[in-house]
Amino acid sequence: MTGESPVSRVAPLTIEGLTVAYGPNRAVDRLSLSVRPGEIYGLLGSNGAGKTSTIKSIVGLVRPLEGRIRVFDQDVAEHGLDAKRKIGYVPETSLLYDALTPREFLEFVASVRHLDAAVASQRCQSYVTAFRLEAEFEAPILTLSNGTRQKVLLIAALLHEPPLLVLDEPLNSLDPRSVRIMKELLVGYVARGHRGILFSTHTMEVAEQLCHRVGILDRGLLRAEGSLPALRAQVKSGDATLEDLFLQLTEEGEGVRAAVEALTGRR
Amino acid sequence: MSWREALRLSDVAFAELSLQAIYAFRQGNVAPGGSGPRIVARARRRVVQSKAIVSFVLALLALAAALALRAVRLRAVFFGATLPPAAFEAGVVTALLSLDVAFLWWTGMQVLPTFLSSGVLPVLEPLPIDDRTLERTAGLLYLRLFDLPALTVLVVTPIVLGLAAGPWVGLALVPGVVAAVAFSLGLSLLTGRFFVRRVQGSRGGGGRTLLRWVYLVLWLVPAFAMFAFVIVAPSFFTTLAVLAGAGPSTAAHLLLAAFPFTLAALPALVASGPSGLGLDPVGWETLAAATAGYLALAAWSLVWVFGSVRRIGLVPAGGMASGPGVRVALKPQRPVLSVLTKDLRVASRTPGFAFLVLLPVLDAVAIGLLTFARAPGGSAAFGIALAAVVTAALLATFFGPAFFAVEVFAYAYGRTLPLPDRSLLAGKVLLVAMLFLVAGGTVLGITLTRIFDPVLFVAFIAAELPAVVAASLLELGILFRRARSKGLPITNLYSGAWISFLVAIPGLVVAGLPLVAFDYALAGGLELGLLAMAAVALGELGIVAPLMLGRGDV
User: Fold this and answer.
1) Is residue A108 within 8 angstroms of chain B, CB to CB?
2) B325 within domain boundaries
3) Separation CA A155–CA A148 (nearest Å)
4) Nearest residue in chain B measured CA to CA from A138
């Protein structure tokens, strides 16, 4: 597999009625959304809104209570391996084999993904050079900084050029140079073929710059979904930033003001 | 701040450590069902259960030593009148203290990686806690890793031996057990520090990988003492008998100065009287000086442990990644082989895992060397060589379940890769089979000039191989299914070891049945024995393999 998977115009990702529960707590409640071909979809939400649970359900780390997830029309519950072949995943936390070096880890990933040695090396070389990772390439991952670990995870996700990228806070810990590279890379990535990206973030500016559409999750529920102009129209605020929209749609604007007043008043 | 504050902090930190050890949240695992306090309580309970297992084994060792001390007839059978009672008693206590040190040290090696990866100490570090309290907290936290096993050695062992040989004997054992515990804690931390600096942080590359394995072999040889002692015990007692018969000598004085014999001599002297060991004035002076020295060293060891845990707990997050840039070249393999390669690479930087990989091979070397004590070409030498292979097979099978443990490293990430469970399982089984073959090949290499027929020897290895594969398929298959259904990783000795022990039982039965068949059919000749063995082993593989691999994703 070289990563140039034949994909049609079907949606890279479709989620229908997804419910994730941990004991009595519902982390995600009847969530439905889709990532269209050529689209970067931003999943926004506060801490604990259900973003990571949604993403973990997509990549098979969490078994949903209800609902269906399809990756290029294949149900991940029935065709888990096929779905995983089409996904490049960056977790929220740096989940890596700490005892391996980046080269050893990426070699394992390339092996599992059946990548050709020349293709894998050439792609890896490009990313390693772009992220300036040469000096750390043979050091155990345990000894690397969070930012460097994040770069290794990004390379692992991109190595097989998957048609669907599922990125959970992918820009966390990255230096400004790498953030810029990633932003440019992601925009160019979906422009080629019919790829899709699901992107979770807390950072409204990043979402505003990158995402074609966003979904706003709040306590497991999808409060709003659409492009930035569509969301502005929804709240009848023509020049609102995504941050303003987020606070309005999650009804947290008042809470923020009250919290700030309480804090500054205390000072 | 006070010791009380350090105790309180260590309690909170230990809850976190237990949680990470059992559920490996930092490796990305998802919380199981139930409320937070209930999950924490469950994690604590499992850690206590695992400690209880280790403590139980240590108590059994004490019981075995107590029975040996009472078995005067046993001594007469093996040594006749040549081994005085005091020398025998000192020998038994030496064995007990050696095994206690080896077992506690090995336990430390197993739990230390979890202790480091849990990150509990770095969490405390930025808090406004003074240095002394932080040091005490780290020290107490470290002690809690060993608490039940250490208390078993410190309290249960003297009581059990006291009941068997008299209360004063038990009391005289106290310096020995205190030193054994102190040295074990110190050795665990010392080797842990070595591990962090030289093994865990070692960069990649062929030469360095080889060097890491050399380091690990050198490092694991002392930990191997637990097993090695069983092998060398007869020679040890024979040497004691020789030394006792020869009277005071330099060799006897050196033995008196060697730990743990020094402190084992104290209860022996109490039991048999001052003349029991036949010590001359130099012997008494040596014993007194060595006792004082070891007790001082034990005290210093405890002080050093308390002062050093905090530093070792702060695993270097960076700074070791220096050096020249490298040309990026990836060499992907077939998925099954890539699992094997990954595991060997992980083991080369993870001593607890390396121990399991090296144990069957080191054992084969140790038993293989015993053939040199027998006449070349004799059936006894051949029997010993076969025993080495049998032990390697059983050890590889017994520790096979632990090879699943490596999956806890990035366990969650691994589950997001399109790696069929069948490939993962096959990779692990390949590792077990490889260990068995390397161990068998090592014995063959060592004994090539000693045994009469290498072809028959190779046939023995080949006949057992299918059973080793079947046994590890069975064990690992059960563990994989359980992990998938429960979402639980099996991380180390303290996080669900009981399930590894349980699945090892059917595994050992599967690995052992062909050996039983060999033994029964041996009456009809060696060739018939081998045929029976191969038939049973292949039959087992024929049954187990479809069950474990036949349904696609396990």
Assistant:
1) yes
2) no
3) 11
4) B204
**Do the bridges between strand A74-75 and strand A196-201 make them parallel or antiparallel, or are there none, so unpaired?**
unpaired
Write out pLDDT tens, residues B452-498: 677 888 888 899 999 999 998 988 888 877 776 665 554 444 455 56
Q: Is the domain of B139 the same as that of B189?
A: yes
User: B294, B311, B328: which is the final residue of a domain?
Assistant: B311
Tally of domains within chain B: 2
Domain total of chain A: 1
Among B64, B448, B442, which residue's Cα sits nearest to residue B233? B64
Residues of A in contact with B418 (CB under 8 A): 81-82, 84-85, 112-113
Inspect the interface and report whether the beta carbons of A135 and B321 lie closer than 8 Å: yes
Rounded Cα distance, A248 and A254, in Å: 9
CA distance B316 to B447: 45
> Over chain B, what is the mean pLDDT?
80
Contact B30 A56 (CB under 8 A): yes
What tokens were used for A40?
A: 């970067």
| CA B222 vs CA A233, B199, B362: distances in Å | 73, 17, 11
Its domain, for residue B161, covers 3-311
- Asked if A99 is an interface residue toward chain B (Cβ–Cβ < 8 A), one would say yes
CA distances from B405 to A94, B423, B484, B497, B511 (A): 19, 16, 14, 10, 21
Over residues B313-367, the pLDDT tens digits come to 665 534 444 444 567 889 999 999 999 999 888 888 877 678 778 888 887 887 7
Q: Looking at CA atoms only, how far is residue B335 from chain A in angstroms?
A: 5
Are residues B299 and B349 located together in one domain of the fold?
no
- Whether A115 is in a domain gets the answer no
pLDDT of B289 higher than 90:
yes
Mutate to test the interface with B, among A125, A138, A169 (most CBs of B within 10 A): A138
Residues B392 and B528 reside in one and the same domain: yes
Q: Is the ipTM of this complex over 0.90?
A: no
Is A126 within a domain?
Answer: no
Residue B329 included in any domain: no
Is A140 at the interface with chain B, CB within 8 A?
Answer: yes
CA B118, CA B141: separation in Å to the nearest integer? 12
CA–CA gap between residue B117 and residue B122 (Å, rounded): 10
- Does B71 share its domain with B137? yes
Residue A95 lies in a domain: yes
Residues B389, B307 share a domain: no
CA angle at residue A96 from A90 to A98, to 5 degrees? Answer: 160
CB-closest option in A101, A117, A136 to B331: A117
With CA atoms as reference, report the closest residue to A38 among A7, A68, A60, A15: A7
Do B42 and B129 lie in a common domain?
yes
Is there a domain that residue A237 lies in? no
**Residues of chain B positioned with their CB less than 8 A from the CB of A99:** 200, 345-346, 348-350, 409
One-character DSSP codes across chain A: --S-----SS-SEEEEEEEEEETTEEEEEEEEEEE-TTEEEEEEE-TTSSHHHHHHHHTTSS--SEEEEEETTEETTT-HHHHHHHEEEE-SS----TTS-HHHHHHHHHHHTT--HHHHHHHHHHHHHHTT-GGGTTS-GGGS-HHHHHHHHHHHHHTT--SEEEEESTTTT--HHHHHHHHHHHHHHHHSTT-EEEEEES-HHHHHHH-SEEEEEETTEEEEEE-HHHHHHHHT-TT--HHHHHHHHTT-HHHHHHHHHHHHHH-
Lookup result for tokens 């969530």: A31
CATH no. for residue A79? Answer: 3.40.50.300
Q: How far is A64 from chain B (nearest CA, A)?
A: 12
The DSSP result for A196-236, as a single string, is: EEEEEES-HHHHHHH-SEEEEEETTEEEEEE-HHHHHHHHT
Contact A179, A154 (CB under 8 A): no
Residues in chain A: 267
